[in-house]
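Board notes (copied after class):
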Amino acid sequence: MNNIDTIIFDLGGVLVDWDPKYVYREVFNGDEEKVDWFLNTICTSDWNVEQDAGRTFKEATDFLVNKHPEYEDWIRIYYDRWEDMLLGQIDETVALLEKIKKQGSHQLYALTNWSAEAFPVALQRFDFLQHFEGIVVSGEEKTRKPFSKIYEIILDRYQLKAPSCVFIDDNLENVRGAETIGIKAIHFKNSQQLTAELNLLGVHF
């Protein structure tokens, strides 16, 4: 029997196309090797995710500039041009979200690792965010996925029951984090795969 009454979406990589490569390909004139080197060595994912957990852009930038002063100009570009890393919405997944919203059979929430400083930009840009009954933003909570606390925050705040929820994220570590507290979770790859896995859980739209 289908007991899923709530769907919780991640945003970046599922509904929003965000990638720092969009900016640094311009900075490095299309040199993919240099782009990969810079984002794997200087402005890394591990560095960026601390902003998702509450560190300010200024603190983050100053930290790296002090550590790598020779790359100061490139480092400062990261948050000076952060909005340019937001290419747009992922149309196929947004279409699924809108179908589910129109059907009205499931509660819809979002749980995102996103800087508190940057999230207002998303709210202004993406109309589909209005479809959610609530959004938990890691930077505002000072914790992030995959730590249990942030999943507990969304459950407690909106009085949700873990076994009745399914969580969708493109990051496998975040999927496993949800599963550790009893939330069913789907590792997102594309809209077709997501539709199939939701159907298996009894979610049809």
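Comment from the instructor: The first strand starts at residue 6 and ends at 9. Residues 18-86 form one domain.
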